[in-house]
Amino acid sequence: MKGLTLDAALARLLIIVLMLLTLLPFLSMFSAALAPSGSYPPGLAWPENPQWVNFAKAFEVAKMDQLLLSSLLIVIGTVPLSVLFATMAGYGLAKFDKGRGRWFYLVFVLGLTLPFEAVITPLYYEIKALGLLNTRFAIILPLIGLYMPFGVYWMRTHFVNTPKELSEAAEIDGASEWKQFWLVHVPLARPAIMSLAILQFLWTWNQFLLPVVLVQDPLQRTMAGALGAFQGQWGTDVPLLCAGALLILAPTIAIFLIFQRQFVAALLQGAVKG
Amino acid sequence: MIDRTNQIAGAAAAAPAKSRRRAGIGRRTAIAALLFAAPAFIMYAAFVLVPLAMSVFYSLQRWDGIGKMRFVGLNNYLIVLTDADLLQVIGNAFLLAAWFTLIPVVLGLAVAAAIREHLGGPFGTATRTILFLPQVIPLVAAGIAWSWMFANTGLVNQALRGIGLEALARGWLGDFTFALPAVGIIGAWVLLGLCTMLLVTGITKIDPSLYEAARLDGAGPWDEFIYITLPGLRQELGVCVTVTVIAALASFDIVYIATGGGPGIQTTVPGLEIYRLAFAHRQVGLASALAIFLMVLVLVCVLPIQWLTRVRR
Questions:
Q1: ipTM for the complex?
Q2: pTM for the model
Q3: What angle, 0 to 180 degrees and rounded to 10, lies between the N-to-C axes of helices A238-258 and B121-136?
Q4: What range defines the domain where residue A11 resides?
Q5: B266-282 pLDDT, tens per residue?
Q6: Cross-chain residue pair A115–B139, CB shorter than 8 Å
Q7: A47 touches chain B (CB under 8 A)
Q8: Residues A52 and A87 in one domain
Q9: Is the Cβ–Cβ distance between B90 and B178 less than 8 Å?
Q10: Which of A93, A121, A125 is closest, CB to CB, to B33?
């Protein structure tokens, strides 16, 4: 390893400070979570008598097991279909590299910067008319639609950059369009598809606006939506709130730590392309 | 799902076969391409395009969400552009954008410019993992964590008291002057890691010989930063600013949790106001006008950034 120059040492110091700043809110929540329930703990201090029972209590009052299941169902309902549709559309629209047909792609791209708030009011009335309010479908169906601009953009960018010869070779072999797609292009696109799936998993798990507006029952919501409800109910009990928030965060953080490399790559690429 | 896939597969495979030979490859491919795009388009149309059209339609009405609609033309837009409270709400979004953007970009640039090398090894992995944590957790959790940090007995006040600045301690999120900057700091905390890592990654792509050449020409560190680092990071800076500006203008989660828009309307942002107008005050028309306005506002802010920072080759 190279010896550190003064600049590099300073940069490392700066990075360490940034890391500490990033971790502080978590540590502060953790120390509060161990204080006696209902008390007003200091911002950051190791409690004399750590109340680990707060976590058990929060698990129970938040109905964590049911929350996990609900979020999981929403993710399972949303991500596979959304990724499949986006991959198909990205593949199809990549064929129109110029000329007519491009407008079709532009319609998708126009949605890239759309804030969800811009459509949330009519979505409420639409979901109500479909009789889906207060069900998980109220989150799943709109999310699939709302993910399309990014998903199509992401997958088309991938397919535009794959060599045309691949398709031509498959065509000569007499493979149908669908076979070419499914047997040749999808396997090759696996990294792009995985990144898209990771991003959409995160976005779904953390989705807040849709559950707040469309689903009253916290047990039918995403993790983030349930956390909002949990704060509304237990906001005055700081130790319990912190314990509950940390519990609700735990699954995401665990998955993130396991797939750290893939997540970071996906988030960096996602930002660059989005 | 499997049924559906098969249907689409069948349709996609059958379509080219059915179309006539003399229509030519181009047409067959075009039909297949459109069929591939059909499911995505149907979902997009049903849950984005249709609601968007409904939003435009509502924005021209006076409607309480239940009773009869009354056509009022562009009146709702006029209110959005003239009502003092709504203008303050829109202004808040821009103030937040300054906080969300400046802190992460400036700190990220400082780190990137100083380190200018790939963050490898265990230290690099630890850095990436920790700095990305705020990107992975729900914004709601960031809001809860920081509500606690900024609370009366929270860490921020504890630290101030610890260094003898007791007079400054306060309930930050309930303070008329400091609530908005406090929310701005929450957003900056969330976006800091992403911007830093984007810029650190970006700077490793700059050709090191540029720096050597500059040094031979007698350039100082500041010149290097202005003439090599900044232009070299143009694309990454564009990405950072785009992401942070959108996060601020379209913010909802953090504000909803941390302050609920208060005190007064000091921290209310358009996203929260749309939600309130539509579902608490039953002014669906006005809420929709603000929603369309917000959508256009984001586009108007983001497109020039994209255009300015595009890499021309």
A1: 0.89
A2: 0.88
A3: 130
A4: 6-56
A5: 999 999 999 999 999 99
A6: no
A7: no
A8: no
A9: no
A10: A93
